[in-house]
């Protein structure tokens, strides 16, 4: 939990007045269903209690002023409501600016600018969706300040539009949806094609969700991510000549096996295979969890990692090592890389009694083999974005 009083003081120091509202939006961890959300498949994320807090105050002119307690050196960054454009130099403020731009694109105009101060505790660049949290937070704070009639799902979609069309990452809807719609102690089983969802209680008995940050941040994430998306689109085009489908995940694994030769390119075939089998694994994993079969759930997580490592190629040696350390411990049910990939975090389901052994092994091996320190967090699953004051 942030120090809200320190935030209020910083707001007064930066903007010379008190804020009108305080909101929160969480980061997320995805348990299974990776790189399926832009292929019409299922995902199974949950919102974390880590997140971003934002204080907002309405202004009487067309200026927006932004300040982040996480980037104090950047100082107050200003922008007009008019003529919004992505600007590298505007650093983190491209996300909140992008949300206002996305609203304008949908003909949602706000009458004046605002002052906005944020402070967050999501490790950044770790694949826990700090950018989605910031988008959803901005949408919520602005919605409440100006009385806009937008649902939480609308805010998630505006966040995705910001990411795709303002910031240039062709991401799916999972991260923003999880941040906007999360529920304490539950994961969200989301069909990304229909945006139909249900909550599944995380009854993990004596086990916990453990997140391990590899501290590998890849600078090429967005180009490699967009390339994967492009490869899936290519596979879809070719498969469409043999099957009446709109998205890759419309195919079951057996249907894919029967027609995959039409793709005619081994790399593109492996990309499509990952998405289609991962979607199937996700649906099965949710069934296992509902039946309290954590062991089977964990095995599907492991299979997800192998597929991301070998077929989708979004893992890296450091996250592979973390997962292998986890797999070597008897009390670990499952472990895999989570999020967009190319570094970032792993997620594991670990019996409470085995967490100490896992921590000790990571401590002993990870730095020795990679030269980096890993951070381990026992996750608590919280509610989606909401107003606090
Ligand atoms: C990133 C994207 C999501 C999703 C994941 C991979 O987090 O923002 O939309 O595609 O990668 O599952």
How does this structure look, described?
Helices cover 41% and strands 21% of the residues. With 389 residues, it is α+β, with helices and mostly antiparallel strands. The protein has a six-stranded mixed sheet, sandwiched between helices. The chain has a four-stranded antiparallel sheet with strand order 10-11-9-12. A three-stranded antiparallel sheet has the order 2-7-8, with helices on both faces. Helix 2 (94-105) packs across helix 4 (152-166). The chain starts with a helix and ends with a strand. Alpha-D-galactopyranose (GLA) binds next to helix 5.
The secondary-structure element order is HEEEEEHEHHHEEEHHHHHEEHEE
- Strand order, largest beta sheet: 5-4-6-3-1-13
The hetero molecules present are: alpha-D-galactopyranose
Class per helix and strand makeup: alpha+beta
Task: List key phrases describing it.
11 helices; 389 residues; six-stranded mixed β-sheet; alpha+beta
What is the topological layout?
Blueprint: H1 4-15, E1 21-30, E2 42-43, E3 45-58, E4 63-68, E5 77-80, H2 94-105, E6 114-120, H3 130-146, H4 152-166, H5 174-181, E7 186-191, E8 196-201, E9 207-213, H6 221-240, H7 253-259, H8 266-290, H9 294-310, H10 317-327, E10 332-337, E11 345-351, H11 355-370, E12 375-378, E13 386-387
Parallel strand pairs: 4-6
Antiparallel strand pairs: 1-3, 1-13, 2-7, 3-6, 4-5, 7-8, 9-11, 9-12, 10-11
